[in-house]
Amino acid sequence: MDYHHVLVLWMCTLWPDLQLCFNFDTKNYKIFHGSIEAQFGYTVQQHETGGRQWLLVGAPFEYTGQLQTGDVYKCPLDIKSSSNCSRLDLGKLSLDNVTERKDKMRLGMTLTSNSKDNSFVTCGPLWSHECGSSLYSTGICTKANRNFKLTQTIAPALQRCETFMDIVIVLDGSNSIYPWYEVQNFIMNILQKFYIGPGQTQVGVIQYGSTVVHEFSLGEYQTTEDVLDAAKNIDQRGGEETRTALGISVARLEAFQRGGRPGAQKVMIVITDGESHDSPQMMEVVNQSKKENITMYAIAVSPTFIFRAEIRIIHYSSLRS
Predict the structure, then answer these.
(1) Which of 131, 187, 248, 310 could be joined to 161 by an S-S link, Cβ 3.0–4.6 Å?
(2) DSSP state of 264
(3) Domain membership flag for residue 160
(4) pTM over 0.85
């Protein structure tokens, strides 16, 4: 019997040393047709809801949009004649805060029913998620209640990525920064190296001079491409003063609260070109950041500024923490 033809009847099978017999009904059988390409009938399970009898049928090669996710069908057993099956669209399942790969995950390859509450579980063993440049195929399972509604989705072997970071860039936009396009190109080069996405890195940018402005917040953009597009549109806001300590303080108190995720590693990257006008407060704001487990890096965009004291305070004191 082909997978794509599900024949409902009772069978009798014979083994060399053991006979297992069942009722065989040749008059009241039903045949449910499905796609050969989707492997309709790969798994089957009986299901009951509201006094109605159903047959659940796995189709692990079924498509959801452009992705070959797999799916499950429900076929009525309490109708005398053969009838069409209805797709449950379980391939739309998704996990939050994960950069997932659902193509070819083979949902419906395993299918188990629970007679106690008439729920059922189906799994896609080849569901994957991204961590940096690596791809992990940990599998995913989803539970549906007796009314075929999803109630829970889990990936039992899922582990948090090492790239699970909230990065805030503290950007000097004071009048002394020139030319601005070189600073933008420098930022773009940095952003291209981050693995930005759900469950991985997210980036926020604030710009400071005499005052501080939030350019965009953590999690506002979910892909590297979107973050790069946003960074292209950051204009220099200027300012007669370079208040780096203020920028760091606002990043600590506000930027990490705007879209920051519990458990994510906090990273602050300070990009500046000159000595700040609030340097007496520098050590205090850096120490406060260290107490909140914020890893800090300082980047001087002017070669003559590389060995100034403030860069050492921001960068090296963080590395010693």
Answers:
(1) 131
(2) P
(3) no
(4) no
